[in-house]
Amino acid sequence: MKKSIQKFTLTAATLVSISTYADPVILKIAHFLPPTSGVQVKVIQPWCDTIQKESAGQLKCQIYPAMQLGGTPAQLVDQVKNGVADIVWTAPGYSAGRFPTIEAMELPFVVTDAVSGSKAAWAFYQKNAQKEFDAYKVLALHVDGGMVAHTARKPISNMASLAGLKLRASTRMVSKLLQTMGATPVNMPPAQVTEAISKGVVDGAMASWEVVMPTKLAEVAEFHTEPAAGKPIFSTTVLSLLMNKQKYNSLPANLKAIIDKNSGAPLVANFGKAFGDTITDTKKQVAASKGKIIVLAPTDYDAMRKTAQTFENEWIKDVTAKGMNGKQLAADAHAFALKP
Description:
By secondary structure, the protein is of the alpha/beta class. The protein folds into two domains: 165 residues, D-Maltodextrin-Binding Protein, domain 2 (3-Layer(aba) Sandwich), CATH 3.40.190.170; 139 residues, Bacterial extracellular solute-binding protein, family 7 (D-Maltodextrin-Binding Protein, domain 2, 3-Layer(aba) Sandwich). The strands form two sheets. A six-stranded mixed sheet has the order 7-6-8-5-9-11, sandwiched between helices. β6, α5 and β7 form a beta-alpha-beta unit. α4 packs antiparallel against α11 and α10 packs across α11. The termini are far apart.
């Protein structure tokens, strides 16, 4: 009788284990852009499709775009840390002061394009910034390819034309850069920019090409100013795909392996390519809709870059005072960004 009870108990436990394992793991993924954005359509959704296929349906995603889980973009890092979401795509720089090391990749005139810049951001993270992301399972770190100055009525052709303009800034680094060059930064999330420009609250925005179509920025901004192709751009936003560490650790080894296989350098490369393609496509659409893309003349570009160097020097001084090797971090950012 005792043997029968033990056998029944073992069988029941096995069935429970199999049943639990058979239930798919639903990963809640949150981000701040619309569902039609390139980041969801070209990267996040394909990533979800891949891990679902490779796990035979054991891993599935529920995507919550446009802050559907509530809160603000700056709160996404806490939402994933606290388990409100399992994975988030967001900019660490939206949470000012919390990720100071990775800020080096957002220094002015470092990143040239989305592909090489994303590769550089990942290399920089691996060398210098893993400790400040220790609370997360980092799936990818990449860049948006760089900030462009989008303005409604006044074209920006040199530093003098920035004087007195109110421009949306995405991060602390962009805010500091605008102040250094004579403009007034106004911090706000991408979703508010178009309305703010249409109402005259701001004159324009420093924003990546990625957000132009999803947020309908091109409908209110006629002028779009950037450096010549191949030149480091004003600034960039480092972006991240972060997973709740406890959620990741709770997965069986085979599902962890699938997440790992499709994360890191391969996923960073996917983000870089997607953003690079989006930049090309968006510029074509803007030109076709009679938007004016202004390429800075070499002398005006050099003047802006020289002025921005004073900000980099200040940043180095500030982070060094906090116990970080600011000079080395800045040097690493430039060095990694120069690699193809």
